[in-house]
Design goal:
About 75% of the residues lie in helices and about 0% in strands. By secondary structure, it is mainly alpha-helical. It starts with 5 loop residues before the first helix and ends with a helix.
Length: about 80
């Protein structure tokens, strides 16, 4: 196990939440979170924030909004083709 500081922990929190780090990195961050109230508080916020985003993304957009987005993308693409 290596020492990991608050800056490294906070920088890697998203990867940690999604299990995208090596086993050693996961263990190091878990150990740091267990002993650092500040990082644990930030981590708890990130978990809550990710849950809210995930719930919000489960809903399909209204058909009208989806069509407007597709139309805008096509409009932007056709403008690039002219250049």
């Amino acid at each position: 196990m290596s020492e990991i500081n608050c800056e490294e922990t906070k920088r890697q929190v998203h990867e940690y939440l999604h299990n995208e780090l090596s086993t050693q990195e996961m263990e190091d961050i878990t150990e740091h979170l267990a002993h650092c109230d500040s990082c644990e508080s930030d981590f708890d916020f990130e978990v809550l924030f990710n849950n809210v985003v995930q719930r919000s993304c489960d809903e399909a957009p209204p058909a009208e909004l989806a069509q407007r987005i597709v139309d805008r993308i096509r409009q932007m693409d056709s403008g690039r083709a002219d250049h």
